[in-house]
Amino acid sequence: MEVVAESVAGIDVHQKQITVTILIGSESVKKPKKVSKRFGTTTNMLKNCGKWLKEHCVEQVLMESTGQYWRPVWQILESFDFQLILCNPRIVKNIPGKKTDQKDSEWLSELARYGLVSASYVPPRKIQELRESTRSRKKMKESLTRTKNEIHNILQRSNIKLTSFISDLFKGSGLKLLNMIINGEVLTINSVTKCMHGKLKASPEQILESMDGVLSQNDRNLLVIQMNLLNSYLKCIADLNDLIDEQIGEFSDLCHRLQDIPGISSATAQVIITEIGVDVSPFPDVHHLASWAGLCPGNYESAGVKHGSRILHGNVYLKKALVTAAMGAKITKETGLKDYFWRLKSRMCAQKALIAVAHKILRIIYSLIESGKTYREYKKDQRKAITSVQISRI
C-alpha cells in the first residue's frame, strides 16, 4: 500500500490533555522511530504542540472525532499547514489488550502511516459557523416545545380544558385567554367573547366552561415562569433566524434553487446547505453522500435470503431535514416525487417509501450542487419529474 507520509502523528484527544505519538520512517521500515509526548489543551500548549510536530517534520496528523474536544485542536493545528485527517472512532477502535492513551495515539499513527483510514468530512469555517447556528436553532425549538408541553401539563392538572376547543394556545385567541387565566381576571361571557376571533367554532359558553378549573397559586406562579421562559425562547429563535439569514446571504442562490425541489422549505434548505456545504467534491459520488447521511439502503443477505435491515445512523440533522422534505413532497400536487412515493407505497410500508423519497431528494440535491443547474417539474402528461441535468439517471 502506498505510504502517505514519512513522518505521521496520531493524537488521542481528551478534555484536559492530548497524547501525541509520531512515527518516523517509510513503510519498508519494520520498526519506525517512535516519539511520544503529552500536551495540555490550552491555546498556548496546543501551539507548542504544533511547533513540536514541525520540529519532527510531521506532514500528516490523524485524530479522532471525540465530541467537541477535537475542534480546538484542529483549529490551532490547521494554521501549521499539516495534512489533518479526522476519523470516526467506531472505525479505528480495534486495539487489542488494555486501553491507554499511549496505545490509542500509537494506533492512530500506525493507521495514518499506511493510509488505512478515510478522512471524515470537515466543512469550511463559514459552513461550520452556519452549522452551529442552525443546530442551535434546532435545540432552541426543542426547548420551546418542552416549555409548551409543561404549560399544557399545568393546565390539564388544573382541569382547564381550553385545548378541547383551541388547537394553539400560544397564538391569537388562545394566548389572550391564557393571559386572562394567568392574571387572575374575572371570567365572564363578555370578557371571553372579546378575546375570541370569528374563526373559533366553539361558543363563548363552551370556552367559559372549559376555563372553569381549579388553578392553585403555585400553579399560577409556575405558569408565569413558564410563559416568561417561552417568550425568551421566541426572542432567541427570532435572533437566530436573523443571524442565519445574514450568514447564508452569500449562498442565497443555492438556497433558492434547493427550494424549487418539492417539499423543501427555506429552513430545510438552510439545514441542507449547513450540513452538506456548497461543494460536494469531498464525496466521490452520490452513493458516498447517501451513506454519510444515513439514507443508503441496508444490505443484509444470508444463505441467499434477504433479511430486513436498517439504515445507518449517519448525519441525524441532515437525515431529519430530508425526511421532513419527503413528507412535504408526498402531499405536493402533481409532482414526480409524489408519484414516486405512491408507487413504492403500493409494494412496501409507508416508512420505507418515505426513506426512499428522502434518498431520491438527496440524489437530486447532489446533482444540483455539482452541476449548478436548477430543478423543474415537467407537465403531468410526462411520467416523472426530471431536472435540466437528467435527474432521472441518478
TrEMBL record:
<dbReference type="InterPro" id="IPR002525">
    <property type="entry name" value="Transp_IS110-like_N"/>
</dbReference>
<feature type="domain" description="Transposase IS110-like N-terminal">
    <location>
        <begin position="9"/>
        <end position="157"/>
    </location>
</feature>
<dbReference type="GO" id="GO:0004803">
    <property type="term" value="F:transposase activity"/>
</dbReference>
<dbReference type="GO" id="GO:0006313">
    <property type="term" value="P:DNA transposition"/>
</dbReference>
<dbReference type="InterPro" id="IPR047650">
    <property type="entry name" value="Transpos_IS110"/>
</dbReference>
<protein>
    <submittedName>
        <fullName>Transposase, IS111A IS1328 IS1533 transposase IS116 IS110 IS902</fullName>
    </submittedName>
</protein>
<dbReference type="GO" id="GO:0003677">
    <property type="term" value="F:DNA binding"/>
</dbReference>
<dbReference type="Pfam" id="PF01548">
    <property type="entry name" value="DEDD_Tnp_IS110"/>
</dbReference>
<feature type="coiled-coil region">
    <location>
        <begin position="130"/>
        <end position="157"/>
    </location>
</feature>
<dbReference type="Pfam" id="PF02371">
    <property type="entry name" value="Transposase_20"/>
</dbReference>
<feature type="domain" description="Transposase IS116/IS110/IS902 C-terminal">
    <location>
        <begin position="255"/>
        <end position="330"/>
    </location>
</feature>
<dbReference type="InterPro" id="IPR003346">
    <property type="entry name" value="Transposase_20"/>
</dbReference>
<keyword id="KW-0175">Coiled coil</keyword>
